[in-house]
Amino acid sequence: MPKRVLQGTVVSDKTDKTITVKVERRFTHPVMKKTVRRSKHYHAHDEANSAKTGQTVFIEESRPYSKTKTWKLVEDQAAAAEAAGQAPVADHA
């Protein structure tokens, strides 16, 4: 079974090896037919303490690291390229 991957914004990076990510979802209200935004905060494991507040990141479902921490930070291509000092690779799909 594939692991879920969510995109969100880092709202806190104060704790060691942990980030708090705000994930926002949009859906149409069943009665009012208006687009509604709902957000939820997730604690994610960040081994290298690389994510900073305000950064957009991807988090992936993983084994439990603690009572509240069951997600981990995903190393995506843009972050890896930035760390290596290169320009990020753009997808033309």
UniProtKB/TrEMBL annotation:
Q: Do you know which Gene3D superfamilies this protein is assigned to? A: Nucleic acid-binding proteins
A Pfam match is Ribosomal_S17
Does the record carry Ribosomal protein as a key word? yes
The cross-references to InterPro entries, in alphabetical order and at most eight, read: NA-bd_OB-fold (IPR012340), Ribosomal_uS17 (IPR000266), Ribosomal_uS17_bact/chlr (IPR019984)
Q: List residues traversing the bilayer.
A: none
Family matches, as CDD domains: Ribosomal_uS17 (cd00364)
- The biased composition feature labelled Basic residues covers 34-43
Which residue intervals make up region (Disordered)? 34-55
Q: Which keywords has UniProt assigned to this entry?
A: Ribonucleoprotein, Ribosomal protein, RNA-binding, rRNA-binding
- Record-level GO cellular component terms: ribosome
Q: Is rRNA-binding one of the keywords?
A: yes
Its assembly, as annotated, is: Part of the 30S ribosomal subunit.
Provide the function of this protein.
One of the primary rRNA binding proteins, it binds specifically to the 5'-end of 16S ribosomal RNA.
For this chain, the family text in UniProt reads:
Belongs to the universal ribosomal protein uS17 family.
What is the protein name given in its UniProt record?
A: Small ribosomal subunit protein uS17
Protein's organism: Methylobacterium thuringiense
UniProt lists the gene as rpsQ
